[in-house]
Amino acid sequence: MIGVTATGVDYGVIGNATLTADFASETLDVAFTDVHRSPGLLATDGDLPVPLADMRFDDVPMSSDGLIEDERAGEFNILGHWYGPNHVEAGGIFEHYGRDISGSFGASRQ
Q1: Torsion of CA 75, 79, 85, 87, to 10 degrees
Q2: What is the reported pTM?
Q3: Which of 50, 55, 65, 85 gives 37 a disulfide partner, CB atoms 3.0 to 4.6 angstroms apart?
């Protein structure tokens, strides 16, 4: 995942994205781990990476056509899609309201 903050002083953030899908119940758990400020991603960034807390988006609904979409008031908004044969890749955008971070994510099936 890659994103930016909107908390007065904007800075870039990067991290790892893990998507765990339950195709039977059509739900998805999204975890962004090892999230940290990325030095040099934006002009206002400092020189050292600053670790930030992990972010989770649990029980996100998926549709049979591959749409990933959920908005929970005051928590988050996430929109994405599965791509490729047998849904081998996914990508999308997100906003985490509590952390004031917006960005994008992508993943390939392992």
Answers
A1: 10
A2: 0.85
A3: 50
